[in-house]
Amino acid sequence: MSVFTGKTALVTGASAGLGGEFALQLADSGVTRLMLTARRADRLEELKGRVVAARPGIQVEMVTADLSDATAVATWMSELDKRGFYPDILINNAGFGDIGAFETSDPGKIEAMLAVNITALTRLTRWALPAMLKRKIGWICNVGSTAGMLPLPSFAVYAATKAYVNSFTEAIRVELHGSGINVTALCPGPVETEFGQVAGRPGGKRKFAPPDFLCVDKVDVVRETLDALARGQGRIIPGLLVRIPILLAESTPRWILRLVFNLTSGDFRKEREAQP
After folding, report:
1. Domain residues of the chain, as ranges?
2. In CATH terms, is domain 8-274 a member of 3.40.50.720?
3. Averaged pLDDT of the chain
4. Which of 155, 158, 168, 195 is labelled catalytic?
5. Which band of pLDDT confidence, cut at 50, 70 and 90, is reported for residue 201?
6. Of 25, 36, 118, 155, which sees the most CB atoms within 10 A?
């Protein structure tokens, strides 16, 4: 029997990619009440149908919310309070990226990315924790990224937001040691999701196109993550071909990383001079 049997779960960013897969596998693990949130109501309805068809009897609730809107996040948490919904399992999955030189980034997109990747995740964790501590049991999975382990040219803000997620998760894990709350940072590398399409810029030359051999299937990512969460593992980097080079890069001196990035990231100066 899964440790998640009979528990309640909340998944953000559930309309696609890892979020949808988390919902499906949590249902398979025995969760009895599932709260899903995302911006796209039609996607949530479709996912709800799939979950209920696969596991009749599960209670699936949905809230359409834009997590980049602070007022919407506050309203949503207030609504959950009214429903008396305090999850045993919190999957902070919502997030998105941006690829390209920082100087040409869309300020609005940057603000939204900071709000979703950092602020909403932090507020939801703070909201969910007191009830978990009262029950002396709970699981929190914050979706960081291998990008958060390195300062990445072309992904300057995105990588910085994920560095926050990775660090924040490690810190509260220590604070919650012995409390009955398990906290795990999921740090995936390339996964087949909509990340690349959302991160790209209209007419932008830089694309997110990792080689196929580095991409890990989302089904495997979520399965490994839920296993790690159940065991109380602090961090997971799915995929051996991703995990080994990232762990090596983490221990590489910064001056070497700068040299490698200067050689491999393209000439930003030429791009700048080519701007009209």
Report:
1. 8-274
2. yes
3. 91
4. 158
5. confident
6. 36
